[in-house]
Design goal:
Length: 485
């Protein structure tokens, strides 16, 4: 049964439960066994609640598309009374919630069996998962000397290793797509406000953050997005209504699309040769599929750097606010947070209310500039990251110069120059596992479309998955075992 479990995606496992070929208890037992065996090398699964999961099964699972499928939620957001959280921080270790978030309730309504949380960087800041609260970094199962990404790095590592077929993530600057790229998975970021944020907030990081899921198969992403999409009660914004569903759209041919690709960042900086190769290979595939493919040349006034700095100011303020809410006027023990968090708090003190509003305005203005890009094309094709997955420690959260950590040489935006662009613009974007480096590390390919064009984007993804399936590559790791450094 274990090998059958490892070979199935979430939809496949749910089918086994529905047909009586397996029970939810049996699948949970396998997931727990795999967690015991694999997690010591990964440090991905945290805060286990086995009895909560078993009680959910005894109480009767909802008749949703993933009934009986083991599932993990990120140790950040997805507030749930039965699942305390650290938010990736020693300061918040074991925080309990008085309510269930809407995104958690909608995920649970699919019938998943949630049994633990997954590691996250402190308060979700950073493209790696190396928070001090977990007593060590979260590692990439393709090579444990490399990062699994962030901020949903624990989810990425657990899914790539085969512990579960899919897991919750969230994406405020690429935090679903970065681990998807790093771990050889599907990471789809919907249009802003497509998924609910309530009841505690109306938006995260000035509208840049949104929940999501990391999966091995596109159909699992589509089914979970369908189950979670739509505004919740009192939502201040909502996305343009979809004409149908993600699942229906992924099975349709997208028609001919105008694809534009880039061999460099949108600021003109060079990319790692493996990332260039990933873009070129995908561009050829899309051309063979009948799309119009040409090189992208950004407008001189796109000014990604100004948006990135504004983004850093917003995140610093959000990070400082999260810490202040926990402290409630008490002084902060510097040892209770990581260096990057200390730097964010210090930087936030320099930002006035007017500075903050100016940063939000810059992000919104950038979103309008990106909207103009898609008047002349349908799809923007880039790598997800500028390099293959970084080595553990390369972006460790120890630098207390917050601007340098994020915007400086060797920093976050140099490593991940594409993903935050589409959090700022709110446009849908996805990382697909279409390439591996010369060292056999995953190199995700990033596709983005205009605001609200989720269905057309997932339709294109479905066409790509049918033409260049990635399951066998994923199974080479899952069946072959974690690869040491």
């Amino acid at each position: 049964m274990k090998e059958t479990y490892l070979r199935q995606d979430g939809t496949g496992l749910a089918g086994m439960v529905s047909s009586g070929e397996a029970t939810a208890e049996e699948l949970l037992d396998i997931a727990l066994e795999l967690t015991e065996a694999l997690n010591p090398a990964l440090n991905a699964v945290v805060m286990r609640r086995e009895e909560v999961a078993r009680q959910a099964i005894r109480d009767g699972l909802p008749e949703g598309p993933f009934r009986g499928v083991p599932f993990l939620i990120k140790d950040l957001g997805a507030e749930a009374r039965a699942y305390p959280t650290n938010n990736g921080s020693r300061l918040m270790r074991g925080m309990e919630w008085s309510y269930d978030s809407e995104i958690f309730l909608r995920m649970q309504a699919t019938g998943v069996v949630t049994y633990a949380r997954t590691a996250s960087p402190e308060l979700g800041v950073g493209p790696v998962t190396e928070a001090g609260v977990y007593d060590g970094p979260t590692r990439n199962p393709w090579n444990t000397g490399h990062t699994s990404g962030g901020s949903s790095g624990g989810s990425g590592a657990a899914v790539a290793a085969g512990i579960v077929p899919m897991a919750h993530g969230s994406d405020g600057g690429g935090s679903v797509r970065i681990p998807a790229s790093s771990c050889g998975l599907v990471g789809f970021k919907p249009t802003r406000a497509r998924l609910p944020d309530g009841p505690a907030s109306g938006e995260g990081w000035a509208g840049m953050a949104i929940d999501g899921v990391l999966t091995r198969s596109l159909r699992d992403s589509a089914a979970m997005l369908d189950a979670c999409a739509g505004p919740d009660l009192g939502a201040p914004y909502w996305a343009p209504p979809m004409q149908g569903s993600y699942m229906e759209a992924m099975q349709r041919d997208p028609g001919q699309l105008r694809v534009r690709f880039s061999h460099e960042t949108l600021s003109g900086d060079p990319l790692h040769p493996d990332c260039v190769a990933a873009v070129e290979k995908t561009a050829r595939l899309l051309q063979d599929l009948g799309h119009e493919v040409a090189e992208f040349r950004p407008a001189a006034d796109l000014d990604v750097e100004a948006m990135m700095l504004a983004w850093t100011r917003i995140v610093a303020c959000g990070t400082a606010l999260s810490v202040e809410k926990v402290l409630k006027g008490r002084p902060l023990d510097p040892e209770m947070v990581d260096g990057v968090t200390r730097g964010a708090i210090a930087y936030a003190r320099e930002i006035s209310g007017a500075d903050y509003l100016d940063a939000v305005g810059e992000v919104h203005a950038f979103g309008r500039r990106m909207a103009h890009v898609f008047l002349d094309c349908d799809v923007l094709l880039t790598p997800t990251l500028a390099t293959p997955p970084a080595r553990v420690g390369q972006l460790a959260p120890v630098n207390e110069d917050f601007v340098a950590y994020r915007n400086g040489p060797g920093g976050v935006f140099e490593y991940s120059p594409f993903t935050a662009i589409f959090n700022a613009s709110g446009q849908p974007a996805v990382s697909l596992p279409l390439h591996w480096s010369a060292e056999d590390l995953p190199v995700g390919v990033h596709l983005a479309m205009a605001f609200g064009e989720d269905e057309r984007l997932i339709s294109l993804c479905g066409q790509i998955e049918r033409a260049a399936p990635w399951t066998d590559k994923q199974l080479s790791l899952i069946l072959g075992g974690i690869r040491p450094s």
